[in-house]
Write a structure and sequence with these properties.
Elements (H helix, E strand, L loop, with lengths): L6 H4 L5 H14 L5 E2 L11 H13 L12 H15 L8 E5 H13 L5 E6 L3 H9 L3 E6 L10 H7 L4 E7 L11 H12 L5 E5 L24 E6 L11 E5 L2 H14 L5 H12 L1 H23 L15 E2 L18 H12 L1 E2 L1 E2 L9 E4 L4 H21 L5 H10 L5
Parallel strand pairs: 1-10, 3-4, 3-5, 5-6, 6-7
Antiparallel strand pairs: 2-8, 7-8, 9-12, 11-12
The protein binds pyridoxal-5'-phosphate.
């Protein structure tokens, strides 16, 4: 049967992260020792006190019926309290919608605010789903790309230039997936000033890596002057609390937006899983110990992976300041041959998987084909072994073929001395 699919699905690609992870799994099933650095997922188990809260909830026999569409009131209150105590922000439960992961908070939001042809400025490199979700909602993603030499940060002047009468929103993550960049308070203030001058513009501030931040500064965009009513704060429990499988995310937004998002949610998923919401409530009550431990570990792994990557010729890096990814430029190897020519980031990832048995994600999916995304949410042993394998695989390319980029590779190598 010839099924006709919607233009919505035709306009998007499957998630590259899941794609590479599936390829890695296939290779592993065939008996190969594959090291997977493609999944954006903490390798820590969910802290015990959170899992216990879920078990107690089940044993209590309560919470087995549909929760309210926006989420349980006490959880929304606890989320509002968190923003009051951490950022002095006066969210009320009516401003909070609990969703099936931050991913659904974002998709509900895009569906709520975009009409066909509306534009959303997407700061790149971007998280894959920011781009796809704008498309699914019928919007037009307008991509502005940061450069590695500026730590991938985007100047506010470039954002201003991209604004048209059709622009509805700006979306970005900070700390950022995939680059690890963290915008400073001063830089975010510049964006806030720009937004103040454009009354129809809203900001979708994806702060899901809020705690995984190695700088001294942690800014919630909504707390900047004039931004409370203009910001939709996206957050969730997946990354900070190692709760990816529990699927609890949320957004905090002006009441009128929260109401429309809730209306959508009531039709799309009814609500988020009741047991997972009780676990999330427990997570908020005991925050700091578990988070601090994991963040300290991630920082050590960040330093480890940087030291190993900088020992690889021809790889350019911008030092990540948050999240658990590094996004190196490997394009000096493009044009070389393995079994076939390596032309782009997908070819490079396929080569690294088949030659080194290491899975990483093509930068193309994040809006930068020169780079690959490596997740360092893995043990020091796995990170070390994977970097050794990648180094060998890349050396093999340089040694076995005549490189059109040979000079560039050695120049980059001298440049990287500064990291050692
Ligand atoms: C920037 C960013 N936002 C949102 C999400 C979605 O997280 P969740 O598991 O809560 O859906 C991710 C997950 O990788 C992410 O990297």
């Amino acid at each position: 049967m010839d099924i006709k699919f919607s233009s919505r699905v035709a306009s998007i690609e499957p998630s590259a992260t899941s794609g590479m992870t599936a390829k890695a799994e296939e290779l592993r099933t065939s008996g190969k020792d594959v090291l997977s650095l493609s999944q954006g997922e903490p390798d820590f188990p969910t802290p015990e006190f959170i899992a216990s809260a879920a078990k107690e909830t089940i044993d209590s026999g309560k919470f087995f019926s549909y929760p309210p569409s926006a989420g349980y009131l006490d959880l929304r209150q606890a989320i509002a309290n968190k923003y009051l105590s951490e950022y002095n922000l006066n969210y009320q439960p009516e401003n909070v919608v609990v969703t099936n992961g931050a991913k659904q908070a974002l998709s509900n939001l895009m569906l709520a605010v975009l009409d066909e042809g509306d534009e959303v400025i997407v700061l790149a490199p971007y998280w894959v789903s920011h781009f796809a979700q704008v498309k699914i909602a019928g919007g037009n993603p307008v991509v502005i790309k940061g450069k590695l030499e500026n730590g991938f940060k985007i100047e506010v002047g470039l954002i201003e230039k991209a604004i048209t009468p059709k622009t509805r929103a700006i979306v970005f993550s900070s700390p950022c997936n995939p680059t690890g960049l963290v915008y400073s308070n001063a830089e975010l203030r510049q964006i806030a000033n720009l937004v103040s001058r454009h009354p129809n513009l809203i900001v979708v501030a994806d702060e899901i890596y809020e705690h995984i931040n190695y700088t001294q500064e942690r800014t919630c965009f909504a707390s900047l002057p004039g931004m409370f009513d203009r910001t939709i704060t996206i957050n969730g429990f997946s990354k900070s609390f190692a709760m990816t499988g529990w699927r609890v995310g949320f957004l905090c937004a002006p009441g009128q937006i929260a109401r429309q998002v809730t209306k959508l949610q009531s039709h799309l998923s009814s609500a988020n899983c009741s047991i997972a919401q009780r676990a999330a409530l427990a997570a908020l009550s005991h925050q700091s110990g578990a988070i601090d431990y994991m963040v300290k570990e991630y920082k050590e792994r960040r330093d480890l992976i940087l030291s190993l990557l900088t020992a690889i010729e021809g790889v350019e890096i911008s030092k990540p300041q948050g999240a658990f990814y590094v996004f190196p430029d490997v394009s000096s190897y493009y044009g070389l041959h393995a079994l076939a020519e390596i032309r782009n980031s997908q070819d490079m990832c396929d080569y690294l998987l088949s030659e080194a048995h290491v899975s990483v994600v093509p930068g193309r999916a994040f809006g930068d084909d020169n780079c690959i995304r490596i997740s360092y949410a893995s043990s020091a042993e796995v990170i070390t072994a994977a970097m050794i394998r990648i180094k060998r695989a890349l050396e093999k390319l340089t040694l076995t073929t005549e490189s059109p980029n040979k000079n560039r590779i050695s120049a980059l190598n001298e440049n990287q001395e500064k990291w050692r």
